Amino acid sequence: HISARLDGEKFLITSGSHHFDEVTPDSLVVSSPANANITGDVIHRAIYEARPDVGAIVHHHTTATVAVGLLKGGLQILTQDGAAFHERVAYYEWEGVSTDYDEKQRIAAAFGPSANTLIMRNHGVVTVDKT
């Protein structure tokens, strides 16, 4: 999912039924527990509620990012190209399909106050920024 904060508790999010290159303005939804893909809502809402500095979130499961999440040592920064991730990567022990809103607190705690990347072990990656 890709999302962007609107105001207050509202955010736009991809519906989960389109590939990223197929997303159009009409395919975005205003997220709420009533009309959302619950897994996208749990993960994105956890971060927006905990991090007022975050304005946009991308959560994906590419082969490469899932592979990094499987590594015991996680992301290994071996060149200067990884400098943007230095001390800005957090890890979360994925609990399975995120359908429980109680998980939001655990995701937020794992992400912490300053990370820009959350590697969800055995699942995928979440990256955030202001816009």
Structure overview:
The structure is a single chain. The protein is an alpha+beta fold. The protein has helices at 38-50, 63-70, 103-111, and strands at 2-5, 11-14, 28-30, 56-60, 89-92, 117-120, 124-129. The protein has a seven-stranded mixed β-sheet. Helix 1 crosses helix 3. It is globular and about 40 Å long. The mean pLDDT is 89.
Determine Rg (CA atoms, Å): 14 Å
Number of strands: 7
> Structural class of the helix and strand makeup?
alpha+beta
Summed over residues and divided by their number, the pLDDT gives a mean of 89
Proportion of residues in extended strands: 15-25%
- Provide the low-confidence segments as ranges: none
The rounded distance between the terminal residues' Cα atoms is: 15 Å
The largest sheet, given as strand count, sense and whether it forms a barrel, is: 7 strands, mixed
- Counting copies of identical and different chains, the oligomeric state is single chain
What coarse outline follows from CA principal-axis ratios? globular
Helix content: 10-25%
Please give the order of strands in the largest beta sheet: 3-2-1-4-7-6-5
Total helical segments: 3
List the secondary-structure elements in sequence, H or E: EEEHEHEHEE
